[in-house]
Amino acid sequence: MIRKNYILIFTVLLFSLLITAQNKTNKTFHFGTKNTVSNTVYISEATAYKDTTGYGFDFNTANNVKFTKLGLTSKKPVYFSVKLPEGFYKIDLVLGDKKCSEKTIKAESRRLIFKEL
User: Fold this and answer.
1) Can you tell me the distance from the alpha carbon of 79 to that of 61, in angstroms, rounded to the nearest whole number?
2) Chain centroid offset of residue 117 CA
3) Which residues have CB under 8 Å from 67's CB, separation 6+?
4) Would the keyword Signal be found if you checked this record's keyword annotation (predicted)?
5) Residue 44 pLDDT greater than 60, yes or no
C-alpha cells in the first residue's frame, strides 16, 4: 500500500555486498559527500546505472535523491542497482535519521525485505 504522503528517507552510511560466488569479492558503497573509509566506492552524486561502471541509480530515480555529508535522502522511492552474477549475497545497510520516516527495502526491485521500518 502506498500512502499519499509516503516519505522514504534512505540514509546509507555503508552499503556492503559480500559475494559468495566462486571468486569471493567484496564491494562496499558509501553514499554521501564525506570520504572516510578506504577500499570503498563513494557515491556523492546521483548517477544513473551504466553497464560500464556496473552500478548506479536505476529506473530513472537518480533525480529523486539529495546527498548529505553522511548519506542521502529522498521523498520518493529510490532504486540503486549493482551488476552481479547470480548467487547469494550478504548486504549490510545502515539506515537512520533524526526525523521519523518510513523505509521499505526490496531486493531485485520486487522482493520485499522490510516493509515500513
Assistant:
1) 6
2) 15
3) 31, 32, 33, 44, 45, 46
4) yes
5) yes
